Amino acid sequence: MPCDFFRLINSRRSIREFTDENVDGESLRTILQAANTAPSAGDLQAFEVVVVRDIVRRRQLAYAAFGQLFLERAPLILVFFADHQRSLARYGDRGVQLYCVQDATIAACYAQLAAHALGLGSVWVGAFDDEAVAACVGATHNLVPAVILAIGHPAESPEGTPRRSLSDVARVEEINKKIEDLIEEAIVFATQSPEPSVEEFLREIRDN
Ligand SMILES: Cc1cc2nc3c(=O)[nH]c(=O)nc-3n(C[C@H](O)[C@H](O)[C@H](O)COP(=O)(O)O)c2cc1C
To answer: For atom 20 of ligand 1, which residue has the closest CA?
Structure first.
C-alpha cells in the first residue's frame, strides 16, 4: 500500500536513546531479510552484514566510531561491509569504488526502514575508523565497513529535522536549471524532446 510506505518514510527519525529491551530474534530475521531484498549491481549483492549483540563488542564499536557511546547502549548493531572482492571480479575499479559501496548502503537503508516498520528505532553511523571497525568483528581486508546501524526500542521521540526544499535539491534536465514550481510542465516537456541515438549522444558529449 503506497500510503503506508510514505507514512513510514515520513515518520522515521534517527534514534540514539534506547530502552533496555532486547530486539527479538524474529525482528532481527525480518530486518536481515529486508536487507537481503535490496537491489545490487549485477545482482552480486557485494556486501556482508555482521550482527553484533555482545556488550563488549558494542563498546569497542562505540570507540571505533570515535566515542559515539550511544552505540554501546543499542542492544543490536548491524555492521554493513562493502565486499571489494566480489565486485572486483566482474566490474574492476568501478565495482570497488562504487558498486559494492552502493550495494552495502542500499541494503542498510532497507534494514533501517524495516526496523522502523517494526516499531524499532535506529541510527545510521558513518563516522568511524575503518580499520578499527573491521578489527572489532574480525573482517578481512577485502571487506570495508560502510555503515554501522544501531537498532533498539526507542527511548526518545525527536522532532523531524527540516529538509532542503525540492526546488533546491531537484533540477530539470541540466544541473543549473532549478525545478521551481514547474515540475509537471518540465516533465511533459522532457517527454516531448526528440530522442537522439546513443551514439549521437556520446559523440556530442565527447566533442564538447
Ligand atoms: C551517511 C550517513 C552518515 C551518518 N553518520 C552519523 C554518525 O556518525 N553519527 C550520528 O549520530 N548520526 C549519523 N547519521 C545520521 C544523521 O545525522 C541523520 O540521518 C540526519 O541528521 C537526519 O536526521 P533523521 O535521520 O532523524 O532524519 C548519518 C547519516 C548518514 C546517512
So the answer is: 14
Chain CA centroid to CA 87, Å? 18
pLDDT digits (tens, 9 = 90+) for 156-196: 999 999 999 998 999 988 999 888 755 555 455 555 556 67
Q: What is the pTM of this model?
A: 0.90
Question: Residues 186, 196: contact at Cβ < 8 Å?
Answer: no
User: Which of these, 86, 90, 76, 59, lies nearest to 143 by C-alpha position?
Assistant: 86
- Same domain for 96 and 71, yes or no, is yes
Residues 180 and 133 grouped into a single domain: no
Find out whether 111 and 149 touch, Cβ atoms under 8 Å. Answer: yes
Query: Tens of pLDDT along 17-40?
Result: 999 999 999 999 999 999 999 999
Instruction: Tell me, using a 6 A CB cutoff, whether residue 192 lines ligand 1.
Output: no
Measure Cα distances from 92 to 9, 39, 44, 45, 54 in Å. 34, 19, 13, 15, 36
| Total domains present in the chain | 2
Does 126 contact ligand 1 (Cβ within 6 A)? yes
Q: Is residue 35 part of a domain?
A: yes
